[in-house]
Amino acid sequence: MKELAKKLKLSRTTVSVCLSGKAREYKIAEETEQRVLGYARKMGFAPNHWAQSLIQGQKDTIGFLLDFTEKNYNYYTGLYRGIKILSECGRPYFVHNYSQNDITSSLLKLKGMGVGSVIVIGRATKETLQHLKKPFSDMRIIFTDYPYYGKEAGTDLENIYLIGIDRKKAYLGILEYLYSSGHRMIAAEKFWDTKFPSIFHEFSEKHSLGLDDDFMLPTQNIGNMFEEGMARLKQVLKLRKKHGITAVVIHDDQSAAGLIKALLDYGLSVPGDISVVGFDNIDAAPYFKPALTTLNVPIIEMVEMAIAFETGRIKLDNYTVVDAELIIRESAGRI
After folding, report:
1. For the packed helices 103-112 and 126-133, what is the interaxial angle rounded to 10 degrees?
2. Three-state SS sequence of 190-222
3. Tens digits of per-residue pLDDT, 90-104?
4. What residue spans of 28-72 are helical by DSSP H?
5. Could you give the C-alpha distances from 72 to 151, 251, 283, in angstroms and in order?
6. Cis amide leading into 290 (omega within 30)
7. Taking Cα atoms as reference points, which of 323, 316, 292, 279 lies closest to residue 72?
């Protein structure tokens, strides 16, 4: 900016105002504004919105909080999409990580940087939301991938907005699809939330299947999600021998791919011997062998909605449920 001001024989303040799009507000002549903008384009100059927002404490700065404790590939693609949109429209932003156990400290850091709105790419509990209302009443906080379970109670959230899928509907949709495909002995991994077992048992009771806790695979925590999926082979083989299971539901696509590889290496056919269904629909899901049947959790769509809301292009209620579609591919079939 110093070089631009020197070349144009203008003050740095005048150049800064013209580049920020506020020339009319400060009554700078249009001829001067066009001269500044034209020369800036010629020189390939791009204003540093990141630095400007730090200096000015602009409330139009959007913060992204990414849940780094969740090994969810779609969170990173959602973050990338959000950054791309804001970069294209010249909107300043910050990116910070958080854990579900301590989101408050991360929000405080963004608040101290002058951030007025935050898009959280990750989940939160109802208890967490209540703790955030008062200390961050001057910020707008939008959660994506919020876990709904049927109709949500209409608690007044004021400045907090929740975008997510109906998890109960999604889980039951997967299980009902397998049932309609002829599967009766179905195993499922315990998902991260505590409500999945009751939903699994509700499905079992509806169809009188007798699927008790023995049909629920304990979660693995190895670190690499493909390896976690491969480590489930022993559990699946045990249930196949004991109960004759013909289908398994896994709580993420990478782990589902790992399990499929382990099953194939063992000499079993997927879906001939065992059908496998994943959850998330990551970009690689269609390219696995066999292509993975999985539930599409539209994280990118949720992030786009949050940004559209922030930029005034759409209106949102505090509670917004988006559709999740089961994508039928090759890894699950009829029996």
Report:
1. 30
2. CCCCCCHHHHHHHHHHHCCCCCCHHHEECCCCC
3. 888 999 998 877 888
4. 30-43, 49-56
5. 25, 11, 12
6. yes
7. 279
User: How confident is the model at residue 249, as a pLDDT?
Assistant: 97
Long-range contacts of 46-52, Cβ-Cβ distance < 8 Å, separation of 24 or more: 47/1, 47/19, 47/20, 47/90, 49/90, 49/91, 49/92, 50/92, 50/93, 50/94, 52/20, 52/92
Question: How many separate helices (H) and strands (E) can be counted in the chain?
Answer: 13, 12
CA torsion angle for 80, 85, 90, 93 (degrees, to 10)?
A: -40
Question: Would you call 315 helix, strand, or coil by DSSP?
Answer: coil
The predicted model gives 57-73 an average pLDDT of 80
> Strand, helix or coil at 150?
coil
Closest listed residue to residue 163, CA positions, set 258, 230, 82:
82
Residues 6+ apart with CB under 8 A from 145: 75, 121, 122, 123, 163, 164, 165, 297, 299, 302
Stated pTM of the model: 0.79
* Confidence tier at 166 by pLDDT (50, 70, 90): very high
Measured distance between the N- and C-terminal CA atoms of the chain, rounded to whole angstroms: 69
**Contacts from 29-37 at CB under 8 Å and sequence distance 24+?**
35/8, 36/4, 36/8, 36/10
Residue type, 26: Y
Tell me how far apart the alpha carbons of residues 2 and 230 are, in angstroms, rounded to a whole number: 58
Burial class (CB in 10 A: 0-12, 13-18, 19+), 52: middle
Average pLDDT, the chain: 87
Q: Across residues 126-142, what is the average pLDDT?
A: 84
Residue 53 vs residue 72, higher pLDDT: 72
Residues 6+ apart with CB under 8 A from 41: none
CB 303 within 8 A of CB 86: no
**What is the per-residue pLDDT across 41-62, written as a single tens digit (0 to 9) for each?**
666 565 554 445 444 445 588 9
Which amino acid makes up residue 212? D
φ, ψ for residue 47, nearest 5 deg: -65, 140
